[in-house]
């Protein structure tokens, strides 16, 4: 999850995590130690984020402009554009190699500082750093929150399923946009094969995702392990607007009413 970018933290911390992984794998620094590839130690998307964005090509404004663009693309102009793209791609690859070498050098310097640390200590230090994220212990899913009739378009989010709450994150942000303890969830389930519905009190949230079944099963597992008297009932793909029923959950799953009720802790205590 660290390598896939699902633990939002600073680049400095990511380098330290990579150094601890090297210490765990190879013990103390040595020029003869086998080096994993950088993408096995450090999230590749961090390096790609340093590269300049691709230039935006404005759309043609009329049929005549599209026709002229098509004619030009088929001749010398098209060849010139292809050459420019190839040169740009080569520059970007060179820049990516430079960034990778710089990052690996920084990781190695941190690795050298860990001399004498045993494998169990390195693993414990690694987990301790990751645990600093409040969402540690949650399982994250990539979802698209569907737009409301008056809202903006779909929004790409992380849906975090933890032992105490369901949370919504903007990708890469350490703090959740919103969190719902299980006592606030009245029902959940699949609206269809790619849409997951989560009903929280007086509102329905619809998520487009390829992992509908995995999300539903994980929610059931957490509620069952908490000893829920009656779980939120999974919904079948509706043929008519569903009727939601309130859910009876055991005491202790929700924080006491107060100013923090809408931002309960996200971290999980399970191993």
Automatic annotation (TrEMBL):
From which organism does this entry originate?
Loxia curvirostra
Q: Give the residue ranges for region: Disordered.
A: 227-271
Source domain of life is Eukaryota
Q: Which InterPro entries match?
A: Actin_motor_Myosin, FERM/acyl-CoA-bd_prot_sf, FERM_2, FERM_central, FERM_domain, IRS_PTB, PH-like_dom_sf
Q: Which PROSITE patterns match?
A: FERM_3 (PS50057)
Compositional bias of kind Pro residues:
234-244
Q: What is this protein called?
A: MYO10 protein
**FERM domain mapped to chain residues:** 1-233
Q: Which Gene3D superfamilies match?
A: 1.20.80.10, Pleckstrin-homology domain (PH domain)/Phosphotyrosine-binding domain (PTB)
Q: Which residues form a coiled coil?
A: none
Q: Which SUPFAM superfamilies match?
A: PH domain-like, Second domain of FERM
